Amino acid sequence: MSRIVLPSDFITDCTICVATQVPKVIGHGLEKRSDGVYALLAGVLHENEHKMWLNTSAKRYIPHSGDRVLGMVTSKAGDYFKIDIGSSDLALLNFTSFEGATKRNRPNVKVGDLIYGLIVLTSKQLEPELSCVDSEGRARGMGLISAPGLVLSVSLSYARRLLSSDCKILSELSKQLKFETTVGMNGTIW
């Protein structure tokens, strides 16, 4: 079931399934507060038995913690790389945020390189912070994308559709062609 919601709308079907008492996963565009779940953006609310999320037609990407994004290195500032992820602010990436990186063993990242990373910190007052390792210190596919390829920008809703498990576009395409792709939640595809 889906319905249209506006920012600050209270989502009455809160965070638990009544029958199983299993917590629901709160997805994109929603925020859990002490008294329930609220919409952060205008869009169409979708939910199933395990999760609820909001589909929006936003043109600009708004970073959220836990999003995996693709970005281009625009400059180096001290111990940080500045990454363009398509949001209003450039994201910061510390040089030690790569698997195996230390002060002596720095990654070879240049301006113009493509990075696939995880947003670990967002704030209205600060620039978003990226990391190329998960909480266990493993890259798990994140990091510098050094293979040649094409970078495309698509709408945010199309990128989310490509990342969903029931998307048939990439599976049908893989029957005809051999390819490798990376899709970021920010609407960038490599």
Automatic annotation (TrEMBL):
Residues 149-190 form the K Homology domain. One of its GO terms (cellular component) is nucleolus. Pfam families: KH_6, RRP40_S1. The keyword rRNA processing applies. Keywords: Exosome, RNA-binding, rRNA processing. GO terms for molecular function: RNA binding. It comes from the Eukaryota. Coiled coil: none annotated. The keyword Ribonucleoprotein does not apply. It is found in: Nucleus, Nucleolus. GO terms for biological process: CUT catabolic process; exonucleolytic trimming to generate mature 3'-end of 5.8S rRNA from tricistronic rRNA transcript (SSU-rRNA, 5.8S rRNA, LSU-rRNA); nuclear polyadenylation-dependent rRNA catabolic process; poly(A)-dependent snoRNA 3'-end processing; TRAMP-dependent tRNA surveillance pathway; U4 snRNA 3'-end processing. InterPro entries: Exosome_RNA_bind1/RRP40/RRP4 (IPR026699), KH_dom_type_1 (IPR004088), KH_dom_type_1_sf (IPR036612), NA-bd_OB-fold (IPR012340), Rrp40_S1 (IPR037319). Belongs to the RRP40 family. This is Ribosomal RNA-processing protein 40. It comes from Globodera rostochiensis (Golden nematode worm). The lineage of its organism: Eukaryota, Metazoa, Ecdysozoa, Nematoda, Chromadorea.
